[in-house]
Amino acid sequence: MYEDQHLPGRVRDEEEEMDKKVIINFGQLKMGRPIYQESTGDTHLLYPNQARLRNLTYSAPLYCETKVSTVTIIDPETGEEDVSHEPSKPVFMGRVPIMLRSRYCLLDPLKNDFGLNQMGECHVDQGGYFVINGSEKVLLAQERMSGNHVFVFVKKAPTKFSHIAEVRSVADTSSGPASQLQVKLSSRSGSKGGVTGQTILTTLPNITQDIPIVIVFRALGFQNDKEVMKHICYDFNDDELMTSLMPSIEEAQVIQDQEVALDFIAKRGPQQSATAPKKHRIKYARELLQLEFLPHISTQPNSELKKGYYLGYMVNKMLHVALGRQPPDDRDHYGNKRLDLAGPLMAGLFRQQLRKLMKDVRANAKRIVNAGQDIDLSSIVKSAIITNGLKYALATGNWIGAGGQPTKTGVSQVLNRLTFASSLSHLRRLNSPIGREGKLAKPRQLHNTHWGMICPAETPEGQSCGLVKNLALMAYISVGSLSRPVTLFLEEWSTHSLLEINAGQVAKATKVFVNGAWFGIHHRADHLAETLRRLRRKGDIHFEVSIVMDHQRKELRIYTDAGRICRPLFIVEQDRVPNAAGWRQPRLKIRKKHVQVLMNAQDADDETFGFNALINLGLIEYVDCEEEETIMIAMLMSDLEKKDHSAGYTHCEIHPAMILGVCGSIIPFPDHNQSPRNTYQSAMGKQAMGVYITNYSLRMDTQAHVLYYPQKPLVCTRAMEHLKFRALPSGINACVAIACYSGYNQEDSVIMSQSGIDRGLFRSVYFRSYKEEENRKYGDVKESFEVPDRKTCLSMKPDDYSLLEEDGLVPEGVAITGRTILVGKVQPMEEVEQDENGGGTRSMTEMAGGKVKKCVSLGAKSTEKGIVDKVLLATNEEGHRFTRVRLRSVRKPQIGDKFSSRHGQKGTVGITYRQEDMPFTSEGIIPDIIVNPHAIPSRMTIGQLIECLLGKVSSIRGTEGDATPFTKGTVEDIAQRLLENGYQPHGWELMHNGHTGRPLEAQIFLGPTYYQRLKHMVDDKIHSRARGPSTMLTRQPLEGRARGGGLRFGEMERDCLISHGGANFIQERLMEMSDKSRVHVCDICGLIAIADLTKNVFQCRGCNNKTRISQVYIPYACKLLFQELMAMAIAPRIMVKVED
Amino acid sequence: MPATIGQLPSHLEKARSRVGVGFKKISNPVGTYGARTYQSLGYDNSLRLNDFKENCTLEILFCDDEEVLFDLVGTDAPIANALRRILLSEVPTLAIENVFVHRNTSIMHDEQLAHRLGLVPLKIDPRPFEYWEKGLPVTVANTVKLSLRTKCEFNPSAPRDGEAPPSVLYKNSSVLSGSIEHVPFGGHEQSKFIGNEVPRPVHEDILLCKLRPGQEIHVEMDATKNIGREHAKWSPVATAGYRMLPEVNLKTRVVGATAKRLVNLCPAKVFDIEDDVAVVARPRDCTVCRECIREPEWEERVELTRKRDHFIFSVESTGAMPAPTLVTEALSVLTGKCDLVLAALDAALKQRTTHDNGVDEENPDVEMDESEGS
Ligand code: SF4
Predict the structure, then answer these.
(1) pLDDT tens digits, residue range A195-236?
(2) Which of A51, A517, A537, A996 could cysteine-pair with A58, CB 3.0–4.6 Å?
């Protein structure tokens, strides 16, 4: 478990001259169950749905065993001390948000569906998110480059350096920012200081100048050149390598001594160390090399040799690339990436908040001890720091970067609850925090190593295309385990530590790395890797440890860290004895008997036999991106039987369809579609309405759509079983004809059957929740829910208050239109107001004509109507009463509503025809939807055609069609089955025109196709305005439908009118109908004059002009601009001239 | 068939009276209707009432309460289609239109429950009733009142192990259409409209809603008369449609292996082999799937056509009225429309004669408009 890995923190209050020391020890952490304390003082368990409904945070208290010991120094000379311990006691540290269905969640023990349903939860909901202030928050996995990994990159020509090797070194236990180390090979040009050729330089942390590499070696104690070269080249016979090192050796001729080298480094450090006396400088450099330089190797003293080896390795690797012996590293290789999931993200956040708390505790303790008081832990430890710190980050999504790293935004997002699939997909989303503006295409492209790890189809379009990714179905992200068990094995299996070998031996042996740190060398690495792999399959080493045997580089790399993406594969082993044909056939380790037991197993976590058992038995193993490149994977089981190909197979894919993610797996026959269509559908599937969760009637989502009659698709993929798509579908098997009929389905519109709509086709219900609470403004002024009365209330709205009941809330079941008050709320007015004269007081009530309250009621959105479905009254976190009102309205499909198939073919309804107007087949069947054939050829969504054909077979046979990608089965097979059932094999039907009754000249492709209703509906978009509100500042009409704004008459519209010469129309649109205003200008200076229209007095003070004033009409925005310009000391003048 | 004065050449006759079915394309879907199209060949293509009366036949092939299958011969697509369209949308029935919800504690919203109730076909003969629309008073003559009242409870005699299905564990866990009951009103007068039969849903077993203990539904409903054009729930047919009589001809003698292949090609088993020669045995069964002419050379051997004036009609009733009654009702709606047109024509003619001969003030299009649909 993660929390066990961390040593308990320790804060020490040390004051050297004091005679008394207080030590506060923070010990073992303990997490309680999620409970909630009401403002009344009652405490009870908090279940997630209650948290959702009442705007609470689903969190549990965290306690820490804390011990205070007081040390009194009796005799400073002898150091005699008197230590008194108080017994340790648990101290409340703060509340930690709990991830739903995690081990600390109250839902975790409720294994069966019934228990979950009793708690108001949906039994198919997977959890994996937090509830913060009532809203569900997902932490998106954050992608980053892996640390402790040497990358060698080639720089483009006109730079100072031709090659760079870099490593971001992070020690296992540290949380701070990575320490970056670069080794650079200078470009060919230039001879400096008598040295010609390419020298190698190093960028050390905190050191402003690049240091020649050999000087760093000297500083590490490698005093003679031979030693240095040995640790870089390993093999003196490698002339090429040796030669390329010569310029660097020459460059460091002047510095031969360790002290001098250290001094050299320190002098190039920050100001205070560079100018300090020599003794201090050397000390500074020594500490730098110990603590800041390659901390992942060690931060202990006397580890120079190890660091030297590592530095040598970096140089060696870079030179190999420079000499063209190795290709440079690939930045986008997914093996070089790590993903931070909710665990590490929360851990980082907690660590930060804890540090803040410790600082606070220390300051408080100091104050109390200095004042000579006793320490009361519960008053020093401010639980609000952790509680609010964690809540704030989760609520806003702003992850403050640790130590200088930039703050990441959008880490936590509100869980998408449009469709069940969209929720699932949201929980499996990844984000790469690279600038969206970057025009570099590489990081956005699909990489070979994404195979099976990341869905090739599901990514957004536009600016974050390829940066936001989605995990493939079987992808698993390593949690991380300690490296100690592995290193123990390595030591046992005769790996030679770097301390006990001679650098020359490295050339012949294989280098062994553990989590990027060079552990040692081994002479029979093949054998070692094999053994380790066997141990992993047996379970002696953690299953997520990856073992990479790199023969080309002669390296054995072992990773145990967190955040690597892995995927499961069948293990393949070669037969011991040759088969009849005389060759040793590779076979899956999983056998029929296992499958049989598996089929009887109840659930995946079943320890006796479930998926986990397959891993424990060594039948399946997880492989990460890097290890994946060292194995041979058969695509299909049948590949193993082919003699020519099967030679080296070590693994076999579980199923190639598993490369797809959640949304990609819903597409039938995606392997027959043009790839962008699958991407479009992946985005569109998230907007489809269906049943987004089974407990929707118990939830108060701000907006939700539920389809009346969702159907499970006739044509399914096998992955749907696991995505619960059949249980919570989001579409209908509509009878679709692909035809031109009457012309009302041009340009991606569709014709829909009105009779079908009458019978409930694609009918849905739309829920909308409103929220209101009794706030406490200042002091004791408290708002209250009640029916506002025009006699006593100020600022009443011109809305309908009549539906409110005595409690100020609308009753359930009444019909609502826009401009109806849902919650009546009033605010008492401030009693006393200071008079202008300062002396007397006058109450606001008096001023408002006897009115004592102000109406602050909540009305329904003006464009929305519906029925009050549910009203909830509760108290929120502050103990204030608060209410939620849910409205519902039925949405029948109508002209303009949006629909789509599962192949990125979206369209809006162009017209609805009744049954008698629809074309009909000889069986009397009419299509529900008619799409235009022009939608097909350019988009190449052959999958849709096959889906339709298979759907037809399925509906006739009463079976479910299998449309899993990369499986056997051809169009011919489907056609054959259709033929056997007496239909035209390619789905064509002879149809008759519904209007005329005559046969249609063309034969129509007709069959059931799964269609989705998308959330975009005309009723939510329709808008027009004759006159209405305008903005205060410019007096131009407001913007947007919600505010009853105008429709923008933009630049292009203006250009159009200008080119038509429609001057008067422009005048009318842009001034008369918008913000016409009248100003008076001085005829002399052209500036705006003073005009008192009531007294009919006009004057320009500047010109002392009272007679020559003109009245002009200009747009108010123009007037505003003139005045703003005048404020900037620019005088815009309107010179008026009367034409004679 | 129109009167034949002289004979047309066979290819023209085919184009006139048949729809050709090729593998890729349908030919002559519309046909020739001009009276004088073939005048130069001495063929009169005009339509005469007497010929129509003589030639138009309706032969019932199959008939029960739910479905009727008949051949309509000797008429054209517009008339057959008019019959179809009337069946679908203009023959009135009764369906639940107003639902008064007294109590509904089920998870189903009132609107959805009402929608489902509206779609339940009712066994009420609509003919004696009057139409009702919003604003009219509810009377015995235009409304049948129904009610549905049910409450779900625990079944005390259910087994305790909790594994039993809901239908055993609870009482009334499924609300079926059978629990819709007639509420008599209007006293004796009502029997004039509903006859001796108690109004009830056609099917007893339509699932309306599911309940769990404590949940209750109590609604009252008004069933009113209207037509399918208003809302599909008033459509009296499940579907009504026709196909033209298919004709399968062998252009050449198909023998031996080719004949065997032909028999196997056809999914509808249209062909038989007699003495090693393929014959068209059951042309009526042909679904015009065109499988027999799919491969290129087959179009030379088999000819598929459909007879333009022969419609094989099928009408499936939802159950409110027996299917044959629906057809006669539809025909009477059609004659009603014809009468309307005739009356309008008469009126127009009368107007014209009173207004001096030949002065054509009225736009003749106006009269044409009224003939729509007939
Ligand atoms: S069209 Fe089809 S059903 Fe008709 S004869 Fe040919 S194969 Fe048989």
Answers:
(1) 668 889 999 988 888 999 999 999 999 988 999 999 999 989
(2) A51
Give the pLDDT mean for A850-878: 90
In order of start, what are the domains of chain A with their CATH numbers? 17-133+343-392 (no CATH), 151-328 (3.90.1110.10), 702-763+894-1018 (2.40.270.10), 766-891 (2.40.50.150), 1051-1127 (3.90.1800.10)
Closest partner residue to A1003 among B26, B82, B291, by Cβ? B26
Contact A765 B243 (CB under 8 A): no
Residue A805 CA to ligand 1 centre (angstroms): 71
- Give the residue, by CA position, lying nearest to ligand 1 atom 3: B286
**Lookup: tokens for A326:** 């190795």
In angstroms, rounded to a whole number, what is the distance separating the alpha carbons of residues B344 and B366? 10
- The CATH number for B179's domain is 2.170.120.12
3-state secondary structure A852-881: CEEECCEECCCCCCEEEEEEEEEECCCCCE
Residue A13 has pLDDT above 60, yes or no: no
Q: What is the SS3 assignment for A338?
A: strand
CA dihedral A953, A956, A959, A963 (to 10 degrees): 20
Chain centroid to Cα A431, Å, comes to 5
B143 is a domain residue: yes
Q: List own/partner pairs for A72-79 with CB under 8 A and 24 or more apart.
A: A72/A19, A72/A20, A72/A21, A73/A18, A73/A19, A73/A20, A73/A21, A76/A19
Q: Given CB atoms, is B242 within the 8 Å cutoff of chain A? A: yes
pLDDT of residue B363 exceeding 70: no
Min distance A709 CA to chain B CA atoms (Å): 10
pLDDT of residue A843: 58
For residue B351, is it within any domain? no
In chain B, how many domains are there?
2
Domain of B169 in residue numbering reads as 93-235
Q: What is the mean pLDDT of residues B335-358?
A: 87
Gap between the terminal Cα atoms of chain A: 93
What sign for the dihedral angle of Cα B71, B74, B78, B83? negative
Q: Does B25 touch chain A (CB under 8 A)?
A: yes
Answer yes or no: is B343 within a domain. no
Tens-digit pLDDT profile for residues A1102-1124 = 999 999 999 999 999 999 999 99
- When mean pLDDT is compared across A168-172, A688-692, A870-874, the lowest value belongs to A168-172
